[in-house]
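Design job #97: recover the sequence.
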């Protein structure tokens, strides 16, 4: 190759690379994401935090709750719209809950079994703490209606759900004048729990209610010869965070 051809080749090669990188640069600028653009295919994927008051249904005679019993849940829900306006959706999630129940049930361990009775309060006999604590992994499934739009994160919502829960740790703790004790992983408890819930509100803060559909205890747990058939009812607030 002659010197003249080498210079021509070098100049054209340099020109080619200049044009190539210029085109790439312009193309990249055109493909930059416009973060202010409206997303018509939006989802309401949400982290949630729920704070509740935990009550017990189907209480046997003499059983009562005399202190505030708090519960907290948190997790994430994946939103799957099923209509064109994206105002109706199904959501599936994963979460964690800690629910506590302050009450006056006395549980005693007898060998590998447990006995259940109402705490025998009398002169000089009392308790300062009597509480269940349930730790669960939750699988919520929701049917969602909202009047949301792509432009606004503030809207009315009605979310009805069904929740499966797996009880992976539980503790019963009592402190009383007749002794203190702790019982963990009670085999009489139902490890699989489920129920329905409803969340209704505006924007971030929503009213929340959960109704347990199966008993907390198995039929093996008896009090005065009858099955301890108590179940859960929770009232509180649900916070959805995008």
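Job complete. Output follows.
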């Amino acid at each position: 190759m002659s010197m003249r051809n080498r210079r021509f080749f070098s100049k054209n090669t340099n020109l080619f690379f200049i044009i190539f990188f210029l085109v790439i640069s312009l193309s990249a600028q055109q493909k930059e994401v416009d973060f202010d653009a409206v997303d018509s295919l939006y989802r309401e994927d949400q982290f949630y935090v729920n704070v509740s008051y935990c009550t017990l249904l189907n209480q046997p005679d003499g059983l009562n709750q005399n202190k505030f019993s708090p519960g907290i849940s948190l997790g994430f829900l994946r939103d799957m719209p099923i209509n064109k306006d994206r105002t109706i959706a199904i959501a599936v999630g994963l979460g964690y809950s800690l629910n506590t129940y302050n009450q006056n049930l006395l549980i005693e361990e007898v060998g590998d079994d447990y006995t259940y009775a109402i705490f025998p309060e009398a002169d000089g006999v009392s308790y300062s703490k009597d509480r269940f604590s349930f730790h669960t992994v939750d699988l919520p499934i929701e049917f969602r209606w909202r009047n949301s739009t792509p432009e606004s994160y503030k809207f009315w919502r009605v979310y009805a759900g069904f929740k499966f829960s797996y009880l992976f740790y539980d503790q019963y703790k009592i402190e009383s004048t007749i002794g203190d004790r702790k019982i963990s992983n009670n085999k009489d408890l139902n490890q699989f729990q489920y129920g329905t819930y409803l969340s209704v509100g505006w924007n971030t803060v929503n009213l929340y209610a959960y109704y347990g559909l199966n008993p907390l205890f198995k039929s093996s747990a008896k009090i005065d010869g009858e099955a301890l058939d108590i179940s859960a009812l929770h009232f509180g607030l649900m916070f959805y965070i995008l």
